[in-house]
Fold this protein.
Amino acid sequence: MHIIRLDNDTDFEGWRKAARRLALNGVKPADVTWTVRGGTELSAASGVDDLPDAPHAFNVPATFVELTKAAILHRNGERFALLYRLLWRLRSHHDLAGDSDIAEANAMARAVYRDMDRMIAQVRFREIGRERNAHYVAWFEPEHHVVEAAAPFFANRFADMPWSILTPDLCAHWDGHAVSITSGIDKSEVPNEDRLEEAWRRHTSGLFDPARLKLMEMPQAYWRNLPDDSIIKPLIEDAMRMTSGPFIANKASEPHQPQQPQDRPMARKTTGDSIAALREDAAGCRACPLWKNATQTVFGEGPQTASIMLVGEQPGDKEDLAGKPFVGPAGLMLDRALDEAGIDRGKVYVTNAVKHFKFVPRGKVRLHQKPATPEIRACRQWYERELAAIKPDLVVALGATAAQSVLGKITPINRNRGHLIEHDGTKVLVTVHPSYLLRLPDREAKTLEYQRFVNDLKIAAGWLRRSARAA
Ligand code: SF4
């Protein structure tokens, strides 16, 4: 039996090194016990040191590495063993599709991403000290081990102010230069009032939209940590009073009519920001480092009444200079395919998952770089606000980055294209990005893949036509 003791709950590197050595030496999952410091007296080294360096390495897909990095942050004590079982099967070329372990690992990763999203949304700093001695402190109770993973986001977002995020597990601190991590503390040690309090309350009340109230959305475990806890109850009560007024009361007495797709845009267009206002806000976004080297924010474009929203990856070189999405070679390819599928681009809202151009300079050329998961996640706020403003009947995700942003998880394109996916009440179609077609090496593959792309868009067009007819 090999007992592996990892340094801490988020020790991905420790897990990776041990798992690799175990797998290369043919140690079966049943012969390994995983624990973290404090769980056993044995050291991590004693778990694998007796194993020789195996001569042959093996590779795993990048998606598995991403999945492992996320799932390891889950609080489930079995996660290390589960991930090793998956690695073991991957090494034996086992097909993981339909595997119950992979389903559980994906569920863990999703829960971790949700927890990070909530941390990003809910952390609110309180000011301690004044002027030159000011320090900003926030309290959060994460459901999973997300503090270290989320800290870089706050370091980018609040780079100019020294802050600490305190949690029962770990505390993250930023001194303007580097993030440091210390052990967790008790909530009673956290200050709970400051001179910014009233401003925050006013700010939150102003943001609150009663028409978008969804009481079931957030597990109640999170409610106690909401910085604006004291104002939430009155806001909800007000919203309930407004939505139980005469309009709803009269509707309730009518026989139930299924909502038709064409009814929804008009009813829903009454909420959400205007695209012009969002574009203005996003122009100053500094939520991730991509703004630093890009020329400008490239926001979405198209009518606010659009039934279809197309989401690409990020602006390219031409888009970055023009400040408009899909105006380069991939945009021309997209225009042609939309036309063949019978979709009028003028009636479509077009945007990107990431709004700033990510590139590496090579002489005079700027080489496109794929956005990383933290950048996609940081920029998702803009996609969500565009979605709330446009309220399309259908979202088409073009490529893996767009699919990850739209569906909130890594989604393989080939396995998910060709049919509509229901996600959070929105119909989603996943297909390739037109730039993929441009990169294909031979003419035959290009023609074939282009036709598949057009066929995917025809699915979107057909569904919209049927919905309109049904309405
Ligand atoms: S890429 Fe998105 S999140 Fe990052 S700075 Fe630009 S707009 Fe903000």
Notes: Residues 437 and 450 are 6 Å apart (CA to CA). The longest strand covers residues 426-431. The chain has three domains: 2-117, 123-189, 264-470. Residues 443-470 form the longest helix (28 residues).
